[in-house]
Design brief:
This protein is of the alpha/beta class and about 270 residues long. The chain has two domains: about 150 residues, Rossmann fold; about 110 residues, Rossmann fold. About 45% of the residues lie in helices and about 20% in strands. It contains eleven helices and ten strands. The strands form two sheets. Strands 4-3-1-2-9-10 form a six-stranded parallel β-sheet, with helices on both faces. It has a four-stranded parallel β-sheet with strand order 6-5-7-8, with helices on both faces. Helix 1 crosses helix 10 and helix 2 crosses helix 3. It is globular and about 50 Å long. The two termini are about 30 Å apart.
Length: about 270
């Protein structure tokens, strides 16, 4: 049994949706979460900056004795995952590959769509991973950066949100589409609006559950899983702990314990 915690980082609050899925798949595991709220968002940053931020985030988690690192940010997974896997001494799991696997499972011959931040779309991470498995796949990618701000404001199901969603998803017409990948950890909170706009016949692929299942497999294979006991969870941010504590329940579905501030630039 390995009692060390799992480390999870994201550019802000969205990665808490991955934490929620980890609770479901790995209820005994303790989790240390870091949200880089002071440097949010990552979607408009250069790849070099994202890699630097990701290395600092991971260094903090390793200082907290984390036995594995989950990159719960699509943009960081797209630009920094390989770098982290090559340089860290612990297993590192991102959200892109599990999301791709879930999307292919939902694919039945139609087109696939991707909604993500500008950085994730520009990276080509989803397109490259999908085409490596299915060269003939028809993928339509749309950058939807305003979705992140809407979720951060708590506007997950408002008339204004629906109007913006309809404007963004015009690029998916004409169909048919099997599924649309929600390529940002904020976007699953917009599921009711997106289901209404895209129609019930389109599956919305959330990488959080697939990522949690992947982490469970990795811990089992590396014999790092915790067999039982009561987990302890810690939350850290680089700025704005009050906002984190207020909005965190939107992602977790429960009260967020105290979030402590970390001077992440020191790592």
């Amino acid at each position: 049994m390995n009692d060390r915690p799992l480390g999870v980082f994201d550019s802000g609050l969205g990665g808490l949706s991955v934490v929620r899925a980890l609770w479901h798949h790995l209820p005994s595991e303790s989790i240390v979460y870091f949200g880089d709220t002071g440097r949010f968002p990552y979607g408009t940053r250069s790849p070099e900056v994202i890699r630097r931020f990701s290395r600092q985030n991971a260094a903090f988690l390793l200082e907290r004795q984390c036995k594995a690192v989950v990159v719960a940010c699509n943009t960081a997974s797209a630009h920094a995952l390989r770098d982290l896997q090559e340089h860290l001494s612990v297993p590192v799991v991102g959200v892109v590959e599990p999301g791709v696997e879930a999307a292919l499972a939902a694919h039945h011959g139609g087109r696939l769509g991707l909604l993500a931040t500008s950085g994730t779309v520009a990276s080509g991470a989803y397109e490259n991973a999908l085409k490596a498995r299915r060269p003939d796949l028809d993928l339509v990618s749309i950058a939807a950066p305003l979705f992140v701000a809407l979720v951060e404001e708590g506007w997950t199901n408002t008339p204004a949100t629906e109007l913006i969603a309809r404007e963004y998803t015009k690029g998916f017409a004409p169909g048919p589409f099997d599924a649309v990948i929600l390529g940002c950890t904020h976007f699953p909170l917009l599921r009711p609006v997106l289901s209404k706009v895209l129609g019930s016949g389109v599956s919305l692929v959330d990488a959080a559950e697939a990522t949690a299942a992947k982490v469970a497999t990795v811990l089992r294979e590396t014999r790092l899983e915790r067999a039982g006991g009561t987990p302890r969870h810690e939350y850290y941010v680089s700025d704005g702990p009050e906002k984190f504590e207020t909005l965190g329940p939107l992602f977790l579905g429960t009260h967020v314990e105290e979030a402590r501030v970390v001077h992440i630039e020191n790592y």
